[in-house]
Write a structure and sequence with these properties.
The chain is α/β, with parallel strands linked by helices. The protein contains seven helices and ten strands.
């Protein structure tokens, strides 16, 4: 089932001298349950494209449609609510709330969505167990390693059962072992929860795990390859 569609999407930033055409005429579709990597050199438009998909920025022209909803048609307050309910974000810098425990960070968005306490507690424990951190649920970020913090961030993104997860260079600050562990967890959750994952990455380990690789060059889609998994 198609859950995301980009139609002739462009993003132009008005610079002080020359406008920057960061994304050029991008047309893509994503199906439910994909595990896709957007790759390309620095400045190719990867992060800009991810921000556009996530509604953190709006295209100069073109349409982004998520589950039948055109993001450009939403008012700012509607867009915030739509993101909250449909899109999970995993950032390179973790972005955990430092004064909250791992458990509190994971349940934060569910609290905003007014999930009942019992359901929130069950979902939080389920996800922290899935990422191997159920025994650290009462630890604050400062007491966790980088790999552990990123696993909490993944659990937080998955908590409200979004349509898909956008992950911007999620392994960039992790050592090899932590990155491999994180990727295995995300791949497992992708298969079990059927949530689409879309990565922006330079990391060959992420690309190796991906079942679809979209290459950008100068803001354009240079290639789009679906890779048959042995488990498919």
């Amino acid at each position: 089932m198609k859950i995301l569609e980009l139609k002739n999407v462009n993003k132009i930033y008005d610079g002080s001298e020359v406008p920057v055409h960061a994304v050029r005429d991008v047309t893509l579709e994503f199906e439910e349950g994909e595990f896709a990597a957007i790759v390309g050199p620095s400045g190719s438009g990867k992060t800009t494209l991810l921000n556009l998909i996530g509604g953190l920025d709006m295209p100069t022209s073109g349409e982004i449609i998520i589950d039948g909803v055109n993001l450009a048609k939403l008012k700012p307050s509607q867009l915030i609510d739509f993101r909250l309910r449909n899109i999970g974000f995993v950032f390179q810098s973790y972005n955990l709330i430092p004064v909250l425990t791992a458990r509190e960070n994971v349940e934060f968005i569910m609290s905003l969505q007014k999930w009942p306490r019992k359901e929130r507690d069950a979902r939080t424990y389920e996800l922290l167990k899935a990422v191997g951190l159920e025994e650290r649920m009462n630890s604050r970020p400062s007491k966790l390693s980088g790999g552990q913090q990123q696993r909490v961030a993944v659990a937080r993104a998955l908590a409200p059962k979004p349509k898909f997860i956008l992950a911007d260079e999620p392994t960039a600050n992790l050592d090899s072992k932590a990155a491999s562990n994180l990727l295995e967890i995300m791949e497992k959750l992708n298969r079990e929860e059927k949530i689409t994952f879309i990565f922006s990455t330079h990391d060959p380990r992420v690309v190796k795990k991906a079942r679809r690789v979209i290459a950008l060059e100068d803001g354009r889609v240079f290639s789009d390859e679906k890779i048959q998994s042995v488990n498919d």
